[in-house]
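For reproducibility, we list the full input for the GBH complex.
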Amino acid sequence: TDDRTGTGLALFPPAFRWGVATAAYQIEGATAEDGRTPSIWDTFSRTPGRVHLGQTGDVACDHYHRYAEDVALMRDLGVDTYRFSISWPRIKPDGTGPVNPRGLDFYDRLVDTLLAAGIDPMATLYHWDLPQTLEDGGGWTVRDTAHHFAAYAEAVYDRLGDRIRTWTTLNEPWCSAFLGYGTRDQAPGRAEPASAFLAAHHLLLGHGLAARALRAAGAREVSVTVNLTPVSPRDPQDRHDVAAARLVDGLHNRIFLDPIVYGRYPADMLEHTARFTGLDHILDGDEELIGAPIDFLGVNYYAPTHVAAKVGTPSSDRFPGTEGVEHPDPDLPVTGMGWPVEADGLRRLLVRLARDYPSTPLMITENGAAYPDSAEDGRVADAERVDYLRTHLLAAHQAIQEGVDLRGYLAWSLMDNFEWAYGYDKRFGLVHVDYDTQTRIPKDSALWYSGVIGRNGL
Ligand code: GBH
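The corresponding predicted structure, in tokenized form, follows.
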């Protein structure tokens, strides 16, 4: 890596933000406390066969009761930013309608505890836990949900806006739409390609409406987080492989990025959407609403995508719209999730974003890896995670050297937690959690990461 300092360190810019991220349903537990109603993830996790061993977020890391201990862990890490999410069914048990003050009280306590520890709270308003009552009315396939989301966002801002500077509307709308409504991998567990496209639009509309409402109410920083992946064709000389890569890049990345940044769907993605749903659900003015100004784009990066054109008979398509596409084994090492590891994919992604969306500052809002680590004598030796984080941070540093306006890095995750359909089987934490005793043990990676933060580099 470049050494601009003569110290041998890859140093980050002085104002670079360092943090960790979590999400409400993955850590809080207390799913029936203080007026919270079920979300689609309560329903999904109770549906046989959907989550590993039928596990649920009922207890998770019991963060709802142990948040003070968890903030102390973050203070020890030395992070300046904590990205967490707010549970919609705690705030509005009916999804819409009256606010539940006891739900807001929890986040009020959390935010005050963070501020007292010198940690900047960064709130995500939707990390996948839609109130079940709204799903019963059609969920993200119906337009009203976008309006209910904006009203909920305003209610949260009303209570916490004096202390939270940075707001994020959605986490990973691709997952909500395509895995939730398209493939059944996530809640609400519907496998309806057309619904996936309807959901994608209404999620984006919800983002735009909420971003506008937050701004009007006085929010200082507004953002949205998308999960992006650089898509490479198996053979860059083969025009069919190149077309397959362009399609998957469209369905995964551009279909969200272009409306968010430029207030316009890419023409090829409009055509594609039309094949599944027609375009009647996209009203005049929607795209402009979706293009509400943001202060930075949150980027979650885990793995690259390698594709090829599929020759011969059409078989199962992995995600709605990707019939005719094949996902060849990229022959890379994999994490405990089976996801390929390629740190340079992060550099390529960031450089591409800076080229195609040059006026939008970026922040890495999630990056990390699951490995099956265990605690021995009070220590968790997770060398593979350290390696994953180290190589990805060096890739991010390289991207900055190449001119990318990258504002911060948030590791996924503060601690082991409920990994959605994988339950508690997969551990992404810097801090190990013993789910029998709720004991937290910082892993070697946590100690390593706090060193990086302390030096502002590695
Ligand atoms: C995020 O989603 C979530 O925001 C977070 O809640 C979750 O805990 C965390 O990541 C870890 O899963 O092998 O090429 O098929 C991640 C979204 C979508 C990223 C699927 C990896 C598959 C890679 N993921 N993708 S591949």
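The pocket of GBH is lined by residues 23, 26, 171-172, 175, 227, 300, 302-303, 305, 339, 366, 412, 419, 428 (CB under 6 Å). The chain is about 40% helix and 15% strand. Both points were considered when choosing residues for closer inspection.
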